[in-house]
Write a structure and sequence with these properties.
Layout lengths: L8 H10 L5 H14 L6 E5 L5 H6 L5 E6 L2 H8 L7 E5 L12 E7 L7 H11 E12 L4 E3 L4 H15 L6 H6 L3 H6 L5 E14 H10 L1 H9 L1 H19 L7 E14 L3
Parallel strand pairs: 1-2, 1-4, 2-3, 4-5
Antiparallel strand pairs: 5-8, 6-8, 7-8
Helix pairs in contact: 1-4, 1-9, 6-11, 9-11, 10-11
Bound molecules: S-adenosylmethionine.
Length: 271
């Protein structure tokens, strides 16, 4: 079954505006792994579940060609609208049926996306399209975010945890898969050469407004919004007010620090 929780136009534009780009540290780990296991040339990278292209664009300086694949046309439309990346193309499709010949891909990535894939069919396709020595890098973060602003970080974390509780009934089972850091998928990867790196720090300065946009980008928030629009909008309004009050500021443009920890599942197809 293909999960279609990211299809709506408004959700795609929230994604483009507010979603975090993976930290440079993750990219370096992935490129070093590829260099160690396969080495040059770096011809083709494919970013699966690319969404609006945050991770796809990070790969642009390092490959001759990058293809971003996503099931959502609206997400792809946002990705294509970002100018200046002439070696990237975006194509509609699924991670379970890839439009590439056998043994043609150097690197397959999926950023915050592999938990939505059909594990068995995706792994079969990955094995088919990767070159010998080609690598996959499945990265993501759990839902443990921490907020810092003066001395009120703990208070902001508590508010965020309460938001998570409200969203719990609208949370897809697939979110537990990413919170497990893709444990089952990792175990099912058919290559003997695999590892999982954990605890890679991701820190960003964000305005209060952007933090709220990040919450709105969550699939569970969008499910809540579809089921009960006024309650969902009220949640963002009250959470904004609670953040501002805790921080003792009045502007939603006030910046705070948001941190999380990324993980990365790496695997290399035998040569
Ligand atoms: C949480 S978003 C991540 C987007 C982006 N990679 C990022 O880091 O922000 C997950 C994306 O995976 C896509 N997706 C879900 N299932 C998919 C599948 N089976 N094949 C390809 N894309 C899929 C969704 O449409 C969505 O855009």
């Amino acid at each position: 079954m293909t999960h279609r929780l990211f299809e709506e136009k408004n959700h795609a534009s929230i994604y483009q505006k507010y979603r975090m780009t993976p930290p440079v540290g993750v990219k370096e780990i992935v490129l070093q792994y590829l260099d160690k296991k396969k080495g040059p040339p770096h011809e083709l990278a494919v970013d699966l579940g690319c969404g609006t292209g945050q991770n796809t664009r990070l790969l642009a300086p390092h490959f001759q060609e990058i293809v971003g694949i996503d099931v959502s046309e609206n997400q792809l439309e946002e990705a294509r609208a970002v100018p200046g990346f002439t070696n990237i193309t975006y194509r509609a499709g699924t991670a379970e049926e890839l439009p590439f010949p056998n043994g043609s891909v150097d690197l397959l990535t999926a950023a915050s996306a592999a938990h939505w894939f059909d594990q068995e069919r995706f792994l079969k396709e990955a094995e088919r399209v990767l070159k010998p020595g080609g690598c996959m890098a499945l990265l993501g973060y759990t839902n443990q975010f921490h907020f810092s602003y003066g001395t009120c970080g703990d208070r902001l974390d508590t508010i965020y945890n309460e938001v998570k509780d409200v969203l719990l009934p609208y949370t897809s089972g697939q979110i537990a898969v990413t919170n497990s850091k893709l444990q089952d998928l990792y175990e099912a990867i058919p290559f003997p050469d695999k590892e999982r790196i954990d605890g890679i720090p991701g820190k960003m300065q964000m305005s209060v407004k952007r933090v709220m946009g990040l919450f709105e980008s969550f699939s569970m928030y969008q499910t809540f919004l579809r089921k009960d629009p006024s309650a969902a909008e009220a949640l963002i309004k009250s959470t904004t007010a609670r953040f501002l009050k805790s921080m003792d500021v009045s502007s939603v443009d006030t910046m705070l620090e948001v941190s999380t920890l990324y993980y990365c599942v790496l695997a290399c197809k035998p040569k």
